């Protein structure tokens, strides 16, 4: 089971069924904030919806396609981060994330992404990690830019955001990219000697 201690205040842990009520409360408090860039939030309108989503995420994990982790800061769930679309043959995964409005601007998401990237490259031995952001989502785009990702292109009108199609900026980072920091500052817990997703 994946667990990462990012720093003394922040930790990442796979979302499990017992986290459902806490996650639903967080979504309710941030619905307008999240909806601007993540319209899927309106699918999760009840605790039952969230429970079904968690079951789907667990199935995705079991099918070796990715996993969803919560971000806890000072003991409070404040967002989520996930590796999705894991391609074991080509050693590639995409990274997604969202954060509670009240916790933005503290570096929490940048450091959480850094921990996930480090885990992906050092534990899973990935070759490539990608991040996609709406081109107008400057706060989200600042994270891959800050972490040394390269802008690889613009994907035109790929997502419907309620009243318009949004373009996405596609960022990529390779394990051997010179801008990637060497070494690990994070304590990640996963069984040793396992295949890619069995380590999650």
Describe this structure in words.
It is a single chain. The chain is an alpha+beta fold and 200 residues long. It has one domain: Aminopeptidase, CATH 3.40.630. The chain is built from five helices and nine strands; from the N terminus they run ββαααβββαβαβββ. A nine-stranded mixed β-sheet has the order 7-8-6-5-4-3-2-1-9, sandwiched between helices. α1 crosses α3. The longest helix has 16 residues, at 47-62. The radius of gyration is 16 Å and the shape is globular. Mean pLDDT is 88; it is low at 182-186 and 190-200.
Reported by name, the CATH topology is Aminopeptidase
The helix-and-strand class reads: alpha+beta
Question: What is the string of helix and strand elements?
Answer: EEHHHEEEHEHEEE
- How many domains make up the coordinates? 1
Please tell me the overall pLDDT.
88
Roughly how much helix do the residues carry, as a percent range?
25-40%
Strand content: 25-35%
The CATH class label is: Alpha Beta
CATH architecture: 3-Layer(aba) Sandwich
Task: Tell me the number of strands.
Answer: 9
Tell me, briefly, the overall form. Answer: globular
Task: Give the low-confidence spans.
Answer: 182-186, 190-200
Number of helices, where a helix is a run of at least 4 consecutive DSSP H or I residues: 5
> In CATH, what is the homologous superfamily?
Gcn5-related N-acetyltransferase (GNAT)
What is the spatial order of strands in the main beta sheet? 7-8-6-5-4-3-2-1-9
Rounded to the nearest angstrom, the radius of gyration is 16 Å
Largest sheet: 9 strands, mixed
Distance between the termini: 5 Å
